Amino acid sequence: MTDRASLLSPTRRRLLRATSAFTALALLATLAGPAATLADDAKKEGGDITFLIDSLGDTWIPNNSAISSFQGHIWGHVADKLVYVDAQGQASPWIAERWEQNATATEFTLHLKQGVTFSDGTPVDATAVIANLDIWSAGRKKEGINPIFLFPKTYERAEAVDAATVKVFFKKPTLGLIPTLGYHGSILISPKTIAQPATEQADLSKSSGSGPYIVESWKEGDHVTLTKRKDYNWGPAAVGHTGPAFLDTITYKLVSEPSLRIASVQSGQADVAYNASPQELSSLKDEGFTVATPRYLGFVNGLAINTKLAPYDDVKVRQALQAGINRQEIIDTVYTPDWKLATSFIQSNVPGATDHSDLLVYNPEKAEKLLDEAGWVKGADGVRTKDGKPLLLTLHSNPYLAASKSIDELISQQLGKIGWKVVIRAYDVVTFGEKVKFGGVAVPAYEVTRSFIDAGTVAGILTNANNGENWFALDERDTVINDLRDKIASADTLDARAPLLDALQKYVLEQGYFIPRTEIVQRIYVQSPALKGEVYNGVAYASYYTATKSEVGQ
Amino acid sequence: MNSAYLTYAGKRLAQAAIVILLAYVFTFVVVSILPGDPITSVLRNPQNGFSEEEIAQIVAAQGLDRPVLEQLWSSLSGFLTGDLGLSMRSHRPVTTMIAEVLPSTLILATSALFLALVLAVVVAYGTQVLPKRYGQGLLRAFPSLFLSVPNFVIGLVLIHLFGFQLGLFRVINPDSAWATFFAAVTLAIPISAQIAEVLIASLDHEADQDYIAVARGRGLRPFRLFTRHLLKPSSLPVVTVIALTIGELLGGSLITETVFGRTGIGSHVQRSVSTQDLPVLQAVVSLAAVVFVLANLIADLVYPLLDPRVKLLGARTPRSPASKPAGASAP
């Protein structure tokens, strides 16, 4: 070997040596890494957890982040909210210790907890709260900072009564304010952060909240590591703990491959895997893993029908659709018993949701009878026709919900039996956004997945009043729904509003405007049995503020 | 000679600049043709519930409703002055985003290239020294085998075997040494196949030459023969292939990085394509163009070192020696 080396010319030999040494060093340097990390993990007292997630969103500008789907996990630990809303939709005090409203629900007074600070040292006082209310409501569009969509559009202004009291004014009655303050978008961010330009806000490490954790490190598209804030003592009373968190750190790590997320939790390399596929859940439960399928407050998953498009302008056809879908079969085939039957078009845990299961019973005979009455005649191929046109339904599978296409395929079979011809179109997110809209020209049914926190906002969305979304393309044609909408909007107490909401749900389902499929579960957690005590809020986000991790199960 | 070389180098540099510029404009055109824009597609998520008017307002505020040529001009003038702009999705400076992930991709790509070279030389050596009947046939099948197994399959098998079964690395810590090593192996296998294929063909050709017969006749041992007489003259086409595989290395790193959960240039490509984040995409494409052009330039400059017959004559350098056998072209 030595004489071989001597045959090479001195310069090339040096080059060769240098290159091999460099490569060997590069490999060795990375080798030293993991051993140290592993040893650290075992020693720490409070424990560290790793949460595997399929996306960390696109931007960390608080208002623009994907707060309803992914980044809400992180914001929920880094920032506090004025109000806490639990899984049953009950609002309770958090940073706002108490609140009052005037008789017409146009003025609200919020009394803030004293001594609360953001992690940059700024106090969470009236000035800070007003800065937040303003940016939620208006954003800074020129800079590319969006408003928070669900923040009431009736907002006028807010003023500081004193350092710990804020008065909020609305142009119209806004019963939804208090629950909306507990929504995932309404996170309190330091006014110093808010004052920063968008590019600075996009750097998560420069954002300060008042939450139980602070950002220790982050890398775009890779991970966010949170570390406990030791002086935190203003947690929401509703979760039964107000002091500092127990776990030392939480790492949200992006792993886009679903099977790797699950396998990592199974092999003990991580503690929580987010968004497992429904089919895997029962075997994971059998293996001893904790499986959580919390429901958020919002609409159920279902179809908003375009009443302008024939034949769905005919109430009998819509009612036949309502009766022709076997919802239990969807749960049995596509989902697991963790999913619940829809009892209205809003989720049953929303305060004000009422049970209208009787309107959602699977009754193919009734559906066939309604179609016969509407003049749709079954042909030799089993497809009904009228004036030479087939009874057609085009479904656009929602790209934001994993099981959507499987459900559409099942519905296609169910409706096929009673004479429908169903066409399924599955688009990617971009094309879906371009082509599929409520009441679109070629969109007889729009598949809804949407959370909200106060049922009072529902009526406005369904119709076209006040920039509403006109889900059923009714415009101003249906006076019943318009009347209910106006009464709900002007209701000044929840008691006065409840019967109106009930009437609205009954009417929308009876008319076949909204065809529920199942109650929606958009967040699925698979968790190591060693991790316990997490709390799920009204938008189905897991908070590990109260969680602890035992040594067993490592 | 010197001025000829300068003219040559100048020409090559000008060519390189044009390639990079064209890549930049081409990316812009392709993304502009696609329907939608990055901001609208986020806002249109039904979870957000923005009205079309609100979306139009926000898009206008971002200047995305301006004429395409105007947008191209402002983006191009930024690029020429070294300003890569802000990502449309994350609102962060593109330069920062690239700088964050570049080391990870560089480590992966260089380790993969090194491993691929070692693997290719070992396989090629085997085909020259092993008995024809037993070892050789098997080794000669290796390149086709390596090429036909998809990259991500190799990656997933390695992860499950060494990550989960043997616990050599934590899958969620993809920058650790073992994880990097296996990611590099995943990336190296198909690349080594191409190098090996060319090297084997070239070695076969050289082995038939008279001087090798003479060397053999002098009683040279196979290893000496291989390292001293065969490898160097056979490596010219290999240099060409390596320069071409740099592109593959970048493309392959996209899949490997995704499978192993590494955050690198590849994951930026994937994300910026799927979200139509034009500034990031343009930066990454330009970076790839720079790397590709540089690699080929270096290859051209290395040829004369390997084979004195290759000379810079002011004109284009021959990319391969005249004696290159027919079978030695890249697959």
CATH topology of the largest domain in chain B: MetI-like fold
> Roughly how many Å is the radius of gyration of chain B?
24 Å
What is the helix content of chain B?
over 70%
Low-confidence stretches of chain A: 1-13, 18-44
Q: Report the end-to-end length of chain B measured between terminal Cα atoms.
A: 35 Å
User: How many β strands of chain B by DSSP?
Assistant: 0
Question: What's the arrangement of secondary structure elements?
Answer:
The complex is a heterodimer of chains A (554) and B (331).
Chain A: H1 2-7, H2 10-43, E1 48-53, H3 72-78, E2 83-85, E3 91-93, E4 96-101, E5 107-112, H4 126-138, E6 155-162, E7 165-170, H5 177-180, H6 191-195, H7 198-201, E8 213-219, E9 223-228, E10 249-254, H8 258-266, E11 272-274, H9 281-286, E12 290-292, E13 301-305, H10 315-323, H11 327-333, H12 364-373, E14 377-378, E15 384-386, E16 389-390, E17 392-397, H13 404-417, E18 421-426, H14 429-435, E19 445-448, H15 458-462, H16 479-490, H17 494-510, E20 514-518, E21 525-527, E22 531-532, E23 535-536, E24 542-543, E25 548-549
Parallel strand pairs in A: 1-10, 1-11, 17-18
Antiparallel strand pairs in A: 2-3, 4-5, 5-7, 6-7, 8-9, 9-10, 11-21, 12-21, 13-19, 13-20, 14-15, 15-16, 22-25, 23-24
Chain B: H1 2-33, H2 38-43, H3 52-61, H4 68-80, H5 94-129, H6 132-148, H7 151-165, H8 177-207, H9 210-217, H10 222-234, H11 236-260, H12 265-275, H13 278-306
Helix pairs in contact in B: 1-13, 5-6, 5-8, 5-11, 5-13, 6-8, 7-8, 7-11, 8-10, 8-11, 11-12, 11-13, 12-13
Signal peptide (chain A): 1-35
InterPro entries (chain A): Peptide/Ni-bd, SBP_5, SBP_5_dom, TAT_signal
Family (chain A): Belongs to the bacterial solute-binding protein 5 family.
